[in-house]
UniProtKB/TrEMBL annotation:
UniProt keyword Lipoprotein present: no
Protein name: DUF1468 domain-containing protein
Domain of life where this protein originates: Bacteria
InterPro entries: DUF1468
Chain segments annotated as transmembrane: 17-34, 54-73, 85-101, 107-123, 130-153
Pfam family for this entry, one: TctB
Alphabetical keyword list: Membrane, Transmembrane, Transmembrane helix
Length: 163
């Protein structure tokens, strides 16, 4: 029989991160309920209308929110490792750069920079290799989408050399 502060008898505090996630799920469910309540006013010939599935999704989110609260209060979640901030900053910075540079520089260069930032987040910090490689791969994707599939992606100076 164990006594004292063994790991099996120690009580953990409620998981605050899980409670935040539960609050986010509940808020999202409330937003979906509110938005789909306007659709419920549209008359249909049957009981199922355009608001039915959003109501089901919102109900499911509320159920998941309640389940998450219960698991957080019982401390059922495993202890998480410390979150590394640097990789997240690399990826978010790459996404921001892509959104800002997509119009002026085009798809290949902007998405190539996102590729290099994501590679740096995963530990490949040789940007002089990953930037040109990412741009070349993204140019290939642009050529396939634009040339073969006839889909429109933002074109920049590099893409204008080919089309």
């Amino acid at each position: 029989m164990t006594t004292g502060n063994s790991p099996t008898t120690q009580t953990r505090r409620p998981d605050r991160a899980a409670l935040v996630i539960a609050a986010f799920l509940a808020a999202l469910a409330g937003l979906i309920f509110w938005d789909s309540s306007r659709l419920a006013k549209i008359a249909s010939y049957s009981g199922i209308g355009p608001a039915t599935i959003p109501f089901v999704i919102a109900g499911g989110l509320l159920f998941l929110s309640a389940w998450t609260v219960l698991a957080a209060l019982r401390a059922d979640f495993p202890v998480r490792e410390r979150q590394e901030v640097a990789p997240v900053v690399w990826i978010v910075g790459g996404l921001a750069a892509q959104m800002l540079l997509l119009k002026p520089l085009g798809f290949s260069i902007a998405t190539g920079l996102l590729f290099a930032a994501t590679a740096a987040a995963f530990g490949k910090r040789k940007l002089w290799i990953s930037i040109p490689l990412g741009i070349a791969l993204c140019l290939g994707v642009w050529l396939i989408f634009s040339g073969l599939l006839q889909l429109s992606l933002p074109a920049g100076p590099l893409e204008h050399l080919f089309w």
